[in-house]
Amino acid sequence: MKLRLLLLVPWLGLSVPVLSQYNSPESVEHDPVGDRYFVSNLGDGTIKQRDQAGIVTPFASVSPDPYGLEILGDTLYACSGGRVKGYLLADGSQVFNLNTGGGFLNGITTDGHFLYVTDFSGQQIFRVEPSTATFTTWVASTGGTPNGIVYEPVNDVLLVAYWGPGAIVRGYDRSTASITGSVSTGVGSIDGITIECHGLVVISSWSPNRISRFEWGILSPQFEDLMVPGVSQPADIDFDTVHDRICIPSGGNDQVILFDLADCATAVPGTPVSEAFTVSLTADGRSLRFQGLPPEVASYRVLDATGRLLADGRPQATVAVPACTGVIIVQVDGLGVRRLVVP
Q1: Does any domain span residue 271?
Q2: CB 306 within 8 A of CB 31
Q3: Does the N-terminal peptide bond of residue 10 adopt cis geometry, omega within 30 degrees of 0?
Q4: 314 lies in which domain range?
């Protein structure tokens, strides 16, 4: 057991000291309810959990080795060979085991209902229905090697990061699986992809070893190197919406790096048309108050931190808050999104 103190980056964020007990960490998934981090380890075929005090404990043993991790409901799902396996958050017991017939399942995400899983060797994407333990081949040919995948709720697309030289990020429409866009990133071998507090896309690459972010949906995005120290072979990343930090498995040096984004506190996610548009909680915390909305606004949606739809409808002056706590994302058609914390 070694205590690894990581470098500080005061102008953008800082890397939180972590207690390293990992063996080729591959994927990190933050649990916003339990406020802990799940880490898949390729070196010993385990999923471990880390609390906010830095204590690392066993959660589950997985064979073949676990790759991508994703929480949906009360279950942590893991890519394992050609299978998707599920483990109860409460005690780590296995409750799901679906054989997709894929060659090497790697990345996994959810839109709040389905799971979407990349097949690295088969160059395809599966869509899994956990409630019925069934799947479909959602994209039969990705035209390259798909690795990380994330649901981007503002544009309602699945963003897929590709492995290999001259790596791209490609968007797929959630309803039709048609390609909506493709971006050349200027880096090689992208492993992980996630969405941070501003709604920007974050990617982890091996060539070079780097964590970068950019804006999806614009013609010529600028790629920002976040200058995360100590990164070696960064794999399947996640964003912790509770603490505003990027969670990075650094497989080349057996670390998990928690990199705080210092500018999230003042962030206004998305690019709203109307700067006067605001969403706030009423004093009793039971309703959302909309202000600055033009009369032609058609609808709003409320999502939780994982992108799961909690409520939707036509905006009124106030609307009831869905039964939840923690981070919620409020989308308003044609204007943009706002991020709130429900106590």
Answers
A1: no
A2: no
A3: no
A4: 278-342
Q: Which residues of the chain, if any, have pLDDT below 70?
A: 1-20, 265-276, 298, 305-308, 334-337
CATH number of 300's domain: 2.60.40
- Distance, in Å, from the CA atom of 139 to the CA atom of 156, rounded to the nearest integer, reads 16
pLDDT digits over 54-85, tens only? 999 999 999 999 999 999 989 999 999 999 99
Q: In this structure, what is the dihedral angle of CA atoms 278, 279, 284, 287, given to the nearest 10 degrees?
A: 140
| Edge-first strand listing for the sheet containing 75-80 | 66-72, 75-80, 83-88, 94-99
> What does the alpha-carbon distance between residue 296 and residue 56 come to, in Å, rounded to a whole number?
51
B/e letters for 244-273, b = 16+ CB within 10 Å, e = fewer, are bbbbbbbbbebbbbbbbbeebeeebbbebe
Spatial CB neighbours of 127, under 8 Å, sequence gap ≥ 6? 114, 115, 116, 117, 135, 136, 138
Closest to 240 measured CA to CA, from 261, 271, 226: 261
Report how far residue 26's alpha carbon sits from residue 251's, in angstroms, rounded to the nearest whole number: 6
d(CA 113, CA 108): 13
The CATH number of whichever domain residue 39 belongs to comes to 2.130.10.10
Are residues 192 and 239 located together in one domain of the fold? yes
